[in-house]
Amino acid sequence: MKTVIFALLSILILSSCVTRGKMTGVHEGMTKAEVIRAAGDPDGYQRSGEYEVLFYIDRSAGNWSAFSTSYRDVVDYSVILKDDHVVEYGPGRTHQRASGATPFVRMPAR
After folding, report:
1. pLDDT at residue 9, as a whole number
2. Side-by-side strand order, sheet with 75-82
3. What are the pLDDT digits (tens) for 9-61?
4. Which of 37, 17, 41 is nearest to 26 (CA)?
5. Does any domain span residue 82?
6. How would you classify residue 37: left for phi > 0, otherwise alpha for psi between -120 and 50, otherwise beta?
7. Could you give the number of structural domains in the chain?
8. Tell me: the pLDDT tens digits for 68-102?
9. Predicted TM-score (pTM) of this structure
10. Is 11 left (phi over 0), alpha (psi -120 to 50) or beta?
11. CATH number, domain with residue 100
12. How much is the pLDDT for 97?
């Protein structure tokens, strides 16, 4: 009986460490429609000329822990598109530049 309980507890602990965030299917070159299909509807949106940014809040990004709180499991993601194709993506927020070749710059999370 102890072996069964130990095995079930081990499986539970190991499976709680594996999370799959919504951004795992996103990669450079994807179209906006493909990103939305992979990651869902964005939580925010911004456009400047031929560039646009999709903002996502990935609430399942962190590992679950009995001691964690909800704010520790939230990660902001930005997907920058040019002419409807992903040119940059990743964790962090995107800010609009005052001037420059590209109107947006992604600020990675610390």
Report:
1. 53
2. 44-48, 51-58, 75-82, 85-91
3. 555 454 444 445 677 889 999 999 999 999 999 999 999 888 999 999 876 64
4. 37
5. yes
6. alpha
7. 1
8. 554 456 788 899 999 999 999 988 888 777 766 67
9. 0.66
10. alpha
11. 3.30.1450.10
12. 76
Which tokens sit at 74? 């939230």
29 inside domain: yes
3-class DSSP assignment, residue 109:
coil
Domain contains 42: yes
Q: Return the exposure string of 17-49: e unless at least 16 CB atoms fall within 10 Å of the residue's CB, then b.
A: eeeebbbeebeeebebebbeeebeebeeebeee
d(CA 74, CA 59) in angstroms, rounded, equals 4
Tokens 């079930």, residue? 8
CB count within 10 Å of CB 53 equals: 23
Residue 47 contacts by C-beta under 8 Å, 6 or more apart in sequence? 53
Structural domain boundaries, residue 49: 20-107
